[in-house]
Amino acid sequence: MTASRPTASFGSPPLIAPIRTIGSQSFDFSQRVAVMAVVNRTPDSFYDRGSTFAFDAAVAAALAAVADGADIIDIGGAPFAPGPELAVADEVNRVIPVIEAIRESSDVVISVDTFQPEVARRSIEAGADVVNDTTGLRNPDMAAVIADSKAHVVITHSLAEPRTVYGRPTYGDVVAEVADFLGRQVNLALASGIPENRIIVDPGHDLNKNTLHSLELTRRFSEIAALGYPALAAVSNKDFVGETLDRDRGDRVAGSLAAAVVAITNGARILRMHNVRESVDAARMTEAILGFREPAYLRHNMGDRNE
After folding, report:
1. Which residues pair with residue 110 across a beta bridge?
2. Tens digits of residue pLDDT in 194-204
3. CA distance 18 to 196
């Protein structure tokens, strides 16, 4: 399927279908950046180190993120990083109760971070609106599950099989190769029956990429956005931020926000972030600078007499 694409300007990617209904929410990605909050029900997640592994902690973190302005809550039950394989039944038991609890309390968009088709299917039945697949639809059954639903899909670039060790990644041109992969997987999604207005792409910062690769992806993010689908930037607290600034995991917020703002100005329309309140402020401020939104109020130097 081929669609005509409008001409892009600074901060404005040439989106094929900018207005999206995801769950009960509507987004105009031509002038809106959505913030996706990360909530992991895993004991070994790279950033929170299991702080939201317990059911009550995961639900509380999700609802706190909603209160802080998150547009999307991304629930994960199994990391992509190397480690022991998690049984599908165990992953289901981790994510489904959280999805159900959030859906009972909020109409926020819910995403499930999984590469297992059965987990995706069960999550959609429980109320998830998005499937965030870090393998980029490598399992053809995943595309079929999503096509047979109303859910959006995030197609992410990676090289390795989930939970496996991968040697030093090499690219001739990392951005061109990532964009080529995403383009091919988008075509697979379309051929599988997923309509273009339910597709999101993610270049996969740090997923089988070193710091130089992730910096290059951020700098040339416009080439990912030029694919025509809302592009997600998952830059929060990642190793490329830590290695660039020599900062430990708990001290990467400022660097993550800087990377997020650069990604937005290069066309990113979804930010996957841990520090929600700060990320929402950064997104809204960048929207205003780009002329996508009005300030919350105008007072400074707006009267006949100003102090």
Report:
1. 73
2. 999 999 999 99
3. 11
Give the angle 128-89-48 at the CA atoms, nearest 5°.
65
How many Å apart are CA 274 and CA 49, to the nearest integer?
Answer: 12
Q: What's the pTM value of the predicted model, to 2 decimals?
A: 0.93
Question: Is residue 149 in some structural domain?
Answer: yes
Three-class SS state of 85: coil
Helix ranges (H only) for the chain are 55-67, 88-105, 117-126, 140-147, 174-191, 211-219, 221-225, 239-245, 253-265, 276-289
- Residues 6 or more apart whose Cβ sits within 8 Å of residue 44: 50, 79, 81, 83
Report yes or no on 168 lying in a domain. Answer: yes
Domain around 73:
19-289
Q: pLDDT digit string (tens) for 131-168? A: 999 999 999 999 999 999 999 999 999 998 877 777 89
What is the CATH number for 279? 3.20.20.20
Q: Which residues are catalytic?
A: 238, 272
Please give the Cα distance from 136 to 28 (Å, whole number).
Answer: 24
